[in-house]
Structure formats: C-alpha cells, structure tokens
Amino acid sequence: MGFGPVIDELIDALKVLPGVGQKSAQRMTLHLLERNRKGATRLAFALEAAAEKIGHCHSCQNLSESEICAMCQDASRDVDTLCIVESPSDLIAIEQSHHFKGQYFVLKGSLSPLDGRGPNEIGIPKLLARISEVNVKEIIIATNPTIEGEATSHYIAELLASNGCLITRLAHGLSMGSELGYVDGGTLNHAFSGRKPVLTNE
Asked: Helices 124-133 and 147-159 meet at what angle, rounded to 10?
C-alpha cells in the first residue's frame, strides 16, 4: 500500500541514486518529511539549481558552472601532462591524493558498445582536439582497471600512437575490477609513481 501519489513519486525519484533501493528510498523520504522539512526544501532547491546551472567544461569535459572550469584556468598546473579519467569522481580521487599537478580530460564513461557508449559518446573526438591544441609531453591514461576501462585505454593508446608524446598507464597498486573513485590516496600515489608506457617499440 502506497502513501499517496506525491510521496510515492518522491520515493521513486530517490531510487535513481546509485545503491538506493525501495527500502532506502522510503526511509529517506520519511526522514525528510517527518524530521527535516527544512533539509528537504534545501535539498530540492540545491538539486534544481545544480540541474539548471551545471554543465561540462568545454576544454576537459569535467562538471563545471562555467564554459571553462577553474582547473583548466589554473595557471599553476603543468600543461605538459594530461591525465585521462573516466568520470569526475575519478578526478576528485586523484586530486585528493595530492600527487598529480597536471591537466585532466574527463571521459563520459568507458567504451561499451552493448550500452551504446562508443567513441563519440564518451568524448574521444574532443580529446583528440584537446591534444592537438596543446603541446602535451605525457598522456597518462587513468581509466579504471575493468574490462571496459582496459579496452578504452588500449583504444586511446592506438589512436595516439603516432602523436609523438609519451603515453603511460597507471600500474602498481590498482587491482583488476576496482574503480579509481574508491581507491585510497596512498594506492593512487603508488600507481602514479609506477606508471608504465602503454605502447612500446619492442
């Protein structure tokens, strides 16, 4: 038995969040309505504002409130190195490790033909355009160590093989199947320190 169309709609809306099922969504809904109406109003306004104002940086594809994000405008970052990640959460994880000081490019996921994500959908043409515009000396492919992430890494490395810059891949410390957004800073530091060239002439 439902609570009514308004509450039922809120429960269904909360289920769009990752890891939130029917019971979790119901618990959140009842908590907001019974104990924190101000919090519910604040959440509603914040979500509406974010949905309306947040887009993607025209340079790196990261989430941004402006056409060019603050990170791309930061003159203190090393423009010689570009790190390619799958999502904004991966970028945040790397930034929190305080190891990498270069530029980023954020793919919109990994290649997955079965899910309808090809090169155009994840932003490969924009990546190639970005690389052609700047004199990058090293490209670090930091896609997740999953089957899709490895396939994406190999695809990008093949595309950039004739570019002339060093192409590396995060290596030590990252187990197959893990996601960067959930890896601790120490492990990421180790992975950056132990990165290897993706393609060699051997």
From this structure: 40
Q: How far apart are CA 5 and CA 16, in angstroms?
A: 17
CB atoms within 10 A of CB 180: 25
Q: 105 vs 163, which has greater pLDDT?
A: 105
Structural domain boundaries, residue 151:
74-197
CB 107 within 8 A of CB 122: yes
- CATH number for the domain including 27? 1.10.8.420
Q: Which residues contact 51 (CB under 8 A, 6 or more apart)?
A: none
Q: Would the pLDDT of 176 be above 60?
A: no
Evaluate if residue 201 carries a pLDDT over 60: no
Q: Which of 63, 116, 114, 118 is nearest to 91 (CA)?
A: 63
CATH of residue 161? 3.40.1360.10
Same domain, 31 and 103: no
Same domain, 36 and 78: no
Per residue in 37-48, pLDDT (tens digit) is 999 999 999 999
